[in-house]
Structures are given as C-alpha cells and as structure tokens.
Amino acid sequence: MNKKRILIFASGRGSNAEAIHEAVMDGRINGEVVGVICDHKGAQVLERAARWHVPSVVIEKKDYPDKAAFDEALLRAAVSFTPDLICLAGYMRICGENLVNAFPHRIINIHPALLPSFRGLHAQRQAIEAGVKVAGCTVHFVGTGLDDGPIITQAAVPVYDNDTEETLSARILTREHPTYVRAVAAFCADKLTISGNHVSGMHSEEE
Hints:
35% helix; alpha/beta; seven-stranded mixed sheet
C-alpha cells in the first residue's frame, strides 16, 4: 500500500504534529509528512518542521485584504502539496468552505472535548463551568461549521472537583496524542468508512 501524503496545518507549538511525525517515522502510520502550513510565523511548529526536514509555508491572515483572499491562499498552498490527508494540529482557524470542499473527508481535526459538547475555544473551561464529570477529546472529519463533521473516535478522562482549566487541559492532552495517532493510522490504512455522518472502522476509548 502506498504511503499517504500527510499535510499538517498548525498555529502553535505543534505537539500533536510531533506525535504524528513520530508515528510516521516508527511505522505506526503508513504515511509521510509532506509539509506544514502555519498561520503564525513565530510558531514553534515551524522549528519542528525544519528539524524534520519538511517544507513549511507561513500564511498569515493579516497579509490578505479579507478572509476570502486568505482562504484562497490557503487552498492554493494546500493543493501544491497534493495531500491525501490534511491534519489540523492545533490549528486555530475555521477552515474555509473552499478548502473543505476541495478535500472532502480528507481533513481531520482533534478537539479537546467530547463533541458535540463544548465546541469552540476554551473547551476545557466550558466543561468545568458546566460541571461535567467526564471530558476528553474527539477526532473528527472537518465540516464547514465550528467543530462539526463526522466523529472518528473519542477518548474520555475524568474531571475532578479541584480541576482548573490548566489541569484538565494537561490531562486531556495525554490522551490527545495517542488518540490522534490511532485515527490518522486508521485513515492511512484505508480502514475508515463514512456513511452519512457516521464513521466506522474505529472504536472509542475510555480512561
């Protein structure tokens, strides 16, 4: 089976990107990271890409007159890498419809909540404020809305009475890396089947 070409979108430190790259290098993922697209020129993920000897492109919204022009630049850059899969790894922007439509069911994201609950920013804070006893992370295909799209897999963690946004975030992060790697590995092994809004080929994990 040919290796899948994986393109990473990231905005910050890129810890999930590092987990994916490590899994590629040790053979857990049948793919290769072919590029990194970042929307912040000072992001740590760019240093990681350089260390991996992987080309990176910086596309910052401030350099474009409007969102449409920014989205078009992102699409052109993404297409130039001819990816089989785009992984959003701490990418803090909603993908434009043009990008989602160009790569249907080929863009995946990890979100630090058990979707469909607590979409958007500060999901861990939302969970604490809601008083839930279980939180976690979700890997999903990207749709045109906020943290929507078919769910691939989820992993749960407990929420303790003395948790803060920071402590809960740290606990969820320990599950994010292996969960994301499992989902990317399943995609690259052609194990995922999509029917409507349902994805089969993986099971959810619990703490």
